[in-house]
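Here is the promised in-class demo. Please do not try to memorize the tokens; focus on the logic of going from shape to residues.
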């Protein structure tokens, strides 16, 4: 049973405090949506959970299955089961999906990272690519090099399918996708939930939630939790925007 808990988290980036005491919890089989206007701290929260360098935790804690992960490096957090799909996935020249999957597999098994991976992995990669509507050729293309915004998002979700993490954080997984693409990604997200994974999905807009309803919605504003509720809160934001938020 996966559980991710953020406790009274304050985070500073380049000397500026971005998060100011944020708390939330997402459990196995739960879809927790994070919404808020630009600059509210949504991506900062995701990067901090994943352990990105430069995101200084001033106070508070992050617990994975009840244990603090603040002292762990990003790769250690990933090996423990945390996956982050980036808002804008960077191009990785020279890194191909299949070689990345082999390296991660070997790392988990305590084998040389550059060693040959399990031949069954190729089938798993192909199946994941098919589910996100990408052709088999993407298995051997350089990651995100020359990809459109929608292709990058599909590739991030494909990696989540392949690696099967306990906690999946997706930062704006619907950006760059048309309506059918959003519907397809929403179906996969719902599948993750049914498998018992803990999901944290960050978005500006509620269109994704027309296809998959969140269990909890937390709204960030100026680095603080401004509102929390169920799917009805996402619908209110869709209708009214964020004008009703008030945080001192």
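The designed amino acids, position by position:
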């Amino acid at each position: 049973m996966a559980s991710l808990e953020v406790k009274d988290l304050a985070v500073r980036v380049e000397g500026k405090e971005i998060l100011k005491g944020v708390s939330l919890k997402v459990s196995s089989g739960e879809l927790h949506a994070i919404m808020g206007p630009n600059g509210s701290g949504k991506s900062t929260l995701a990067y901090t959970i994943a352990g990105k360098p430069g995101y200084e935790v001033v106070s508070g804690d992050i617990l994975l299955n009840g244990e603090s992960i603040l002292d762990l490096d990003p790769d250690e957090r990933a090996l423990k089961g945390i996956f982050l799909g980036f808002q804008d996935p960077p191009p990785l020249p020279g890194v191909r999906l299949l070689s990345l999957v082999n390296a991660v597999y070997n790392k988990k098994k305590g084998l040389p990272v550059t060693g040959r991976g399990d031949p069954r992995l190729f089938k798993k990669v192909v199946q994941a690519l098919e589910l996100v509507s990408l052709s088999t050729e993407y298995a051997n293309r350089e990651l995100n090099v020359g990809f459109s915004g929608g292709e990058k998002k599909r590739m991030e979700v494909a990696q989540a399918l392949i690696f099967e993490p306990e906690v999946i954080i997706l930062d704006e997984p619907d950006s760059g996708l048309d309506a059918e693409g959003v519907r397809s990604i929403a179906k996969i997200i719902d599948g993750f939930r049914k498998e018992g994974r803990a999901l944290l999905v960050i978005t500006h807009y509620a269109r994704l939630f027309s296809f998959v309803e969140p269990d909890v919605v937390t709204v960030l504003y100026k680095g603080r939790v401004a509102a929390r509720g169920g799917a009805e809160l996402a619908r209110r934001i869709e209708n009214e925007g964020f004008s009703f938020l008030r945080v001192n």
